[in-house]
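Hey,
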Amino acid sequence: MSRKHNYKRLRRILIATTLIIILIAQTMQANEIQITTDSSNQFSPAIYGDKIVWYDNRNGNDDIYMYDLKTNTEKRITTDSSSQRYPAIYGDKIVWQDYRNGNHDIYS
């Protein structure tokens, strides 16, 4: 093979590789969405299926929230005035650490 032929072949491979990298990057960006938009901090996300849970302090105390990826809706899970933190989800069950009795208990 001549050098000119090798150069053309190498150039085609480089172009194809670059296009593949661009397509992968675009696909990865397309799958990335922001779940929370509140200005408060959100902590400890957990996911099961299409449901994401976390806690944040947008109401002055820590509460548990859930986001449904299928319906694109957010739901507040806890409303007690004490802190609820560290949610976990499995199936249709959500559990968390709750301080409403003056000590940390587990609630569902």
